[in-house]
Amino acid sequence: MLQTQPLFHYMVWAGSFLATTYMLGVIWVIQRVHYPLFHRVFHASAPEAFAGFEAEHCRRITPVVAPAMLLELASTALCLQLNWSGVLRTQAEPLFLGLLWLGAACLILIWLSTVGLQMPLHRKLSLGYDALTVDQLVRTNWIRTVAWLLRFVLMAGAGGVLWFGQP
């Protein structure tokens, strides 16, 4: 466990929470607006144009999500490595760490879903429009949407413990 000053602990937790909050907003826009519109793009253009749209989507969305996802991953890993004793009251520490670990489990699920489900579906769509693949993308993206919502709640709860559980 890393031994550091309490301010560093707060900054690491805040970085993780802010990245989670940002990604929660992004994923809801993707889930409710952007991915469902993939069907409309096909109908509004020639079928072969969809591959170009998909490539442009991937090119543009990566710099929007990658930095936040990497910050969230790194700050969560660091949060789990920090020694929180002395920062929190002894009785608050197990609850705080439990919330952090549950939030980390959500993050693992998000990354597994991204790499194992969404990325392969995007690769398939890069070949051209397929209605079933778009439907799969929308349906499987609910895993990430719900996981980020749950992670946000857990991290907010951890923040409450951090705020009110000081010695």
Enumerate the spans where pLDDT stays under 50 for 5 or more consecutive residues: none
Based on CA atoms alone, the radius of gyration comes out at 19 Å
Fraction of residues in helix: over 70%
Could you give a short account of the major beta sheet?
none
Strand-residue proportion: under 5%
Structural class, from secondary structure content? mainly alpha
Characterization of the model:
By secondary structure, the protein is mainly α. It is 83% helix and 0% strand. It contains four helices and no strands. Helix 2 packs antiparallel against helix 3 (93-125). The radius of gyration is 19 Å and the shape is elongated. The model has no long low-confidence stretch (mean pLDDT 92).
Give a quick precis of the structure.
The model has no long low-confidence stretch (mean pLDDT 92). Helix content is 83%, strand content 0%. By secondary structure, the protein is mostly helical.
Task: Write the SSE topology.
Elements: H1 6-44, H2 49-81, H3 93-125, H4 131-164
Helix pairs in contact: 1-2, 1-4, 2-3, 3-4
Provide keyphrases for this structure.
167 residues, mainly alpha, 4 helices, 0% strand, elongated
